[in-house]
């Protein structure tokens, strides 16, 4: 792997499979009485969040702590950023504090790349979502969830998602999750189809390695996984569809549409959900919906990413299943 994780497009197939396989090892730690490894003891991970977040921030914090790293949580609200401090000065402050890794979420697309290439930070930079650009660890946890459900945890070791048909539905235009998933899933051999109203399809999408459809009913019956995206009203400054009811009728997933999916197929959602709009409560609460699994898998994936970026050559998990005194 490279020193930073900025874009899912930076990952080769071997990189991605290595992360997924390492995450399987990390997932076993969650089944232990003491969910902790000494791997990153003495390392400092900073969560630098300029946007609100629940799942991603807590997930990265849990991942770092389970690897025994010291964690500093930095929120733009209530900090010197609210007084006008620049990203550069914030980064230099973190560098002076000895940050080994900076996990950054920023409202501006490209901010993590700027941080990684500026020389302001000596450690690794992990993109936790930048504007409408990318969210690579979300794509990794989505791929991890798909591989576990569609292939099997043990059977999936070393495998990719070759031949699997994945449909991503909703607000593609504003979705960094969609962009990262298209890059990663195609790298892993999956066939990706985007479904959205024409107004919510990005300009230049014809250059993306995927298909585009405007008819959900035409693709749902041949999908191995259907990922529903939230309509991001906070990023919209115009009307992109007539009404919420019309959007739900054409692009929402309800029980009737789910029944047309293949028996093995799963429903995914990166959260937070708009129940009743892109997904009904019936679907969200069904056993086929992996939304809660995705949250749990996010901790394993982020443990794997931090371990591979910072952990050196030590084995991720010791051969013994019983925690040692040191890991306590």
Describe this structure as you would to a colleague.
Helix content is 35%, strand content 14%. By secondary structure, it is of the alpha/beta class. The protein folds into two domains: 8-134 and 294-310, Rossmann fold; 136-291, Aspartate/ornithine carbamoyltransferase (Rossmann fold, 3-Layer(aba) Sandwich). The strands form two sheets. The chain has a five-stranded parallel β-sheet with strand order 7-6-5-8-9. α4 (111-117) links the parallel β3 and β4 (124-130). The longest helix has 20 residues, at 291-310. Keywords: Pyrimidine biosynthesis, Transferase. Residues 3-147 form the Aspartate/ornithine carbamoyltransferase carbamoyl-P binding domain.
Concise account of the structure shown:
This protein has 328 residues and is an alpha/beta fold.
Count of separate structural domains: 2
- What structural category do the secondary elements indicate? alpha/beta
Predict the CATH topology of the largest domain. Answer: Rossmann fold
Strand content: 5-15%
Q: What letter string, H or E per element, gives the SSE order?
A: HEHEHEHEHEHEEHEHHEHH
What overall geometry do the principal axes of the alpha carbons give?
A: globular
Record field, number of beta strands: 9
CATH superfamily of the largest domain: Aspartate/ornithine carbamoyltransferase
Provide mean pLDDT, rounded.
90
**Largest sheet data:** 5 strands, parallel
Annotation field: number of helices: 11
Low-confidence stretches: 319-328
Tell me the CATH architecture of the largest domain.
Answer: 3-Layer(aba) Sandwich
Strand order of the largest sheet: 7-6-5-8-9
- Helix percent band: 25-40%
Q: How far is it from the N-terminal to the C-terminal residue, by CA?
A: 29 Å
Radius of gyration: 20 Å
CATH class designation of the largest domain = Alpha Beta
């Amino acid at each position: 792997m490279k020193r930073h994780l900025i874009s899912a497009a930076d990952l080769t197939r071997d990189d991605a499979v290595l992360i997924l396989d390492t995450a399987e090892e990390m997932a076993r730690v969650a089944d232990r009485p003491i969910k902790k490894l000494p791997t990153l003891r003495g390392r400092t991970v900073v969560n630098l969040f300029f946007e609100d977040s629940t799942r991603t921030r807590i997930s990265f914090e849990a991942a770092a702590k389970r690897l025994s790293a010291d964690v500093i949580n930095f929120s733009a609200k209530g900090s010197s950023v609210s007084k006008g401090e620049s990203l550069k000065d914030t980064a230099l402050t973190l560098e002076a504090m000895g940050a080994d890794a900076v996990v950054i979420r920023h409202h501006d697309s490209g901010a993590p790349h700027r941080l990684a290439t500026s020389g302001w930070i000596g450690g690794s930079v992990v993109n936790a979502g930048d504007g409408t650009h990318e969210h690579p660890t979300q794509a990794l946890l989505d791929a991890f969830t798909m591989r576990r459900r569609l292939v099997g945890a043990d059977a999936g070791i070393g495998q990719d998602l070759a031949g699997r048909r994945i449909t991503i539905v909703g607000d593609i235009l504003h979705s960094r999750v969609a962009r990262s998933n298209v890059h990663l899933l195609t790298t892993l051999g999956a066939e990706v189809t985007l479904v959205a109203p024409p107004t919510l399809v990005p300009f230049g999408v014809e250059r993306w390695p995927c298909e585009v459809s405007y008819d959900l009913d035409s693709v749902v019956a041949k999908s191995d996984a259907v990922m529903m995206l939230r309509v991001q009203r906070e990023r919209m400054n115009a009307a992109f569809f007539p009404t919420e009811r019309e959007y739900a009728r054409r692009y929402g997933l309800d029980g009737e549409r789910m029944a047309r999916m293949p028996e093995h197929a799963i429903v995914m959602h990166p959260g937070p959900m708009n129940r009743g709009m892109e997904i009904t409560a019936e679907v969200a609460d069904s056993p086929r919906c992996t939304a809660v699994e995705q949250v749990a898998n996010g901790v394993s994936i982020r443990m794997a990413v931090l371990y591979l970026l910072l952990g050196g050559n030590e084995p991720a998990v010791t051969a013994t299943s019983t925690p040692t005194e040191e890991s306590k």
